[in-house]
Amino acid sequence: MSGSIRPEYSLSIVSKEFKDTLSSYSTFLEFVPVSILCGENEFLFYALHVMLYLDAFDIDKSVFVGVKYGMVSGITQLVLKESVIKNENVFALKNAFMPIIIIDESIRLKVKQLGLKGITFVPANEYQEDIRGI
């Protein structure tokens, strides 16, 4: 597993091109059409809902501030359990306070090859949450 997509909000809005790319890698995704109006122009995007949650957070090797409402918060070093991930290409981390979507390296490479813009991939071992105020 290469990394994660960190939505700045709990709802990820994606383009049709990114939707089509993700859909070819996983059946555990749901996309809801979203129209965005800008003046007289209307643009079609999709709200991404990841339906597969894996308990792949390695609580013994990761570094985090604590547990909030039964969920891990303030992650400063993320380590994943590869034995849990197996062959899943797209999933969300179970028991993470902030939504964390994990994407396989092959998808990141495909997105780069297609030249899709506006998507930030963070390698899992570089993922950090803002812990101010926690």
Quick gist of this model?
With 134 residues, the chain is of the alpha+beta class. It is built from 3 helices and 10 strands.
Topology:
Blueprint: E1 3-5, E2 12-14, H1 16-23, E3 29-38, E4 41-50, E5 53-54, E6 63-68, E7 71-77, H2 82-85, E8 90-93, E9 101-103, H3 105-114, E10 121-123
Parallel strand pairs: 5-8
Antiparallel strand pairs: 1-9, 1-10, 2-4, 3-4, 6-7, 8-9
How would you describe this protein?
The chain has 134 residues and is an alpha+beta fold. The longest helix has 10 residues, at 105-114. The chain contains 3 helices and 10 strands; from the N terminus they run E-E-H-E-E-E-E-E-H-E-E-H-E. A hairpin with a 7-residue loop joins strand 8 and strand 9 (101-103). It has helices at residues 16-23, 82-85, 105-114; strands at 3-5, 12-14, 29-38, 41-50, 53-54, 63-68, 71-77, 90-93, 101-103, 121-123. Strands 5-8-9-1-10 form a 5-stranded mixed β-sheet. It has one domain.
